[in-house]
Design goal:
Shape of chain A: globular
Structural class of chain A: alpha/beta
Oligomer: heterodimer
Number of helices of chain B: 2
Number of strands of chain A: 13
Helix content of chain A: 25-40%
CATH class of chain B: Mainly Beta
Largest sheet of chain A: 5 strands, parallel
Strand content of chain A: 15-25%
Structural class of chain B: alpha+beta
Helix content of chain B: 25-40%
Bound molecules: iron/sulfur cluster
Number of helices of chain A: 15
Order of helices and strands of chain A: HEHHEHEHEHEHEHEHHEHEHEEEEHHH
Radius of gyration of chain B: 12 Å
């Protein structure tokens, strides 16, 4: 348990690992962490090597940058290249490859693409540039969508007429359902997302135990949080329970953020369906700007091409996002596809499984294999 | 982008527009506290800051723990702080 020494409370970590090992016995368990932040923590701290080998953590579709399909990136580039448009985006989206390169390439070709920290910064750009039209490329789960909602309300209140949102917000429950419906993967339970749950609360996950009979524990981001949550999952299984539990109650309230949910309801509507990278079309899985705010909807203001392109052949992000493949099992991982020259989305955002594994996991795995060989135990 | 970084509210600049200044690791910027309008925020409170919005209220020890954790992220943390520094809301 070498890595445990770096933990905030190594003794607590050791005790948890012991308890987990006891509870797990000889059975095999597969738990999916839905949130990219968890994936990051797991690889960064080598948690998959600290846990006993019969507990596997699989990574889910919880990185919002990773799930944007190529066609939406192409649409974004099309918008950025329209005359008199200033296209604003979070930094992470700049490098996501579309079929004609990334927004960074569009910028190099002369498009006015600017990265912003917040949608409110994008609105400010609009106020300061009345002779241009400013589009904000909105991505993110329910964690981020309320920020766009507030910005829409503010834009309307200020009477801004040269601002619109290219809305790509997605919702967390439908992809979890899609994964549970897919025959590829047999899961024993879920680590529920932390930050998304500060907005949606814990009730939306009830279908996991009620329909699928599986436990789900909303987890925090510290390595100890993840261990504690795995422990809670195993305890549920031992007791024959399947429930929604909240390990991260110091931040997540069961009812979520009521004000944020209300704002979302006022400014956005569910799309009938939306394409996810690698997962295909999932019904009612994304948000669009509500009719009452149509003036601020880039898809209404521009006759957008609505590009649809297949994911590149070499890219296995879909399998990685579904937890079917580990990042290093993708044929181009670390060779053709690296954080500097990403082919797929999972290599772009730090929360993407491939990037997280490329940056940290590899090292832990190599060390673990060495340690394992030294001790004659499997890593 | 998904990072939530703890910040301490140091000033309520515009109560009507829900704009407050927070201190994140010594960097002070205006953010929106509109999403916490139900419970309300006051000077001295710790909040989790995400894309220019306070998304949850946290206590001081949680803030410290989270800050230690995100600082360990290295480049992702410094990138996030650079972005935060560049923000000019309000
Ligand atoms: S290595 Fe690259 S192409 Fe392969 S799954 Fe990861 S991001 Fe996608």
């Amino acid at each position: 348990m070498k890595f445990v020494d770096e933990f905030r409370d190594p003794a607590a970590a050791r005790a948890l690992v012991r308890a987990i090992t006891d509870l797990a016995g000889d059975n095999e368990y597969k738990f999916m962490e839905v949130c990219g932040g968890h994936t990051h923590t797991i690889y960064r701290h080598g948690l998959e090597h600290i846990l006993p080998p019969n507990i596997e953590l699989v990574h889910g579709p919880g990185c919002p940058v990773c799930v944007i399909p190529m066609g939406r990136v192409d649409d974004a580039m099309w918008l950025a290249e329209q005359p008199d448009v200033i296209f604003t985006t979070f930094g992470d989206m700049m490098r996501v490859p579309g079929s004609r390169g990334s927004l960074l390439d569009a910028k190099a070709r002369g498009a006015d693409v600017r990265f912003v920290y917040s949608p409110l910064d994008a609105l400010k750009v609009a106020v300061e540039n009345p002779d241009k039209h400013v589009v904000f490329f909105a991505v993110g789960f329910e964690t981020t969508a309320p920020s766009t909602a507030v910005t829409l309300v503010r834009a309307k209140a200020l009477g801004v007429t040269n601002f619109s949102v290219f809305c790509n917000h997605v919702t967390i429950v439908p992809p979890i359902k899609a994964i549970l419906e897919s025959p590829d993967l047999r899961l024993s339970g879920f680590l529920g997302p932390g930050h998304v749950s500060t907005v949606v609360g814990t009730a939306p996950y009830r279908f996991v135990p009620e329909v699928y009979g599986l436990p789900i524990v909303v987890a925090g981001f510290e390595p100890l949080d993840i261990l504690a949550s795995v422990h809670m999952l195993l305890r549920q299984i031992r007791d024959g329970r399947a429930e929604v539990e909240n390990q991260y109650s110091r931040v997540v309230r069961d009812e979520g953020n009521v004000a944020a949910l209300k704002l979302l309801g006022e400014t956005m509507e569910l799309r009938p369906h939306f394409e996810w990278r690698g997962l295909g079309f999932i019904s009612q899985s994304a948000l669009k700007v509500a009719t009452a705010f149509a003036d601020f909807d880039a898809e209404e203001r521009f006759s957008m091409p609505g590009i649809r392109v297949a994911d590149p052949k070499a890219c296995q992000c879909g399998e990685v996002l579904k937890g079917v493949l580990k990042p290093w099992e993708c044929k181009v991982f670390g060779t053709a596809c690296t954080p500097e020259t990403p082919i797929g989305t999972c290599m772009v955002s730090p929360e993407g499984a491939c990037a997280a594994y490329y940056n940290f996991g590899r090292l832990h795995r190599e060390t673990a294999i060495l340690v394992g060989q030294g001790q004659g135990a499997d890593a | 982008m998904c990072l939530g970084i703890p910040g301490q509210v140091v000033e309520i600049v515009d109560a009507e527009q829900h704009i407050a200044v927070v201190d994140v690791s010594g960097v002070r910027r205006a953010i929106s506290v509109r999403l916490l309008s139900e419970q309300g925020v006051s000077v001295g409170d710790w909040v989790l800051v995400h894309v220019g919005f306070a998304m949850a209220q946290i206590d001081a020890s949680e803030a410290q723990m989270t800050l230690d954790q995100v600082k360990k992220m290295g480049r992702d943390y410094t990138d996030e702080m650079d972005a935060f520094r560049a923000s000019e809301i309000a």
